[in-house]
Amino acid sequence: MESRAVELLSRLVSIPTVNPPGERYAELVDLAERFFKSLGMDTEVVEVPRAEVAARCPECADRPRLILVARSGEPRIHFNGHYDVVPPGPPEGWRVTGPFEPRYVNGRLYGRGAVDMKGGLTSIMLAAERAAREGLQGFEVSLVPDEETGGETGAGYLVRSGMVKAPWVVIAEGSGEDRIWIGHRGLVWFMVEVRGRQAHGSTPWLGLNAFEGAAYLACRLREYAAAIASRRSRYEYDDPRGASPTVSAGGEVRGSVKVNVVPGYFAFSVDRRVIPEESLEGVEREFVEFVRGAAGEIPHAVEVRVLNRCEPSVIEPDHPLVEALSRAVKEVTGRRPRRTVCMGGLDLRFFTRAGVPAVAYGPGPAEVAHAPDEYVEVRQVVSVALSYYALIKRLSARRP
Question: Are 317 and 175 found together in one domain?
Answer without folding.
Answer: yes
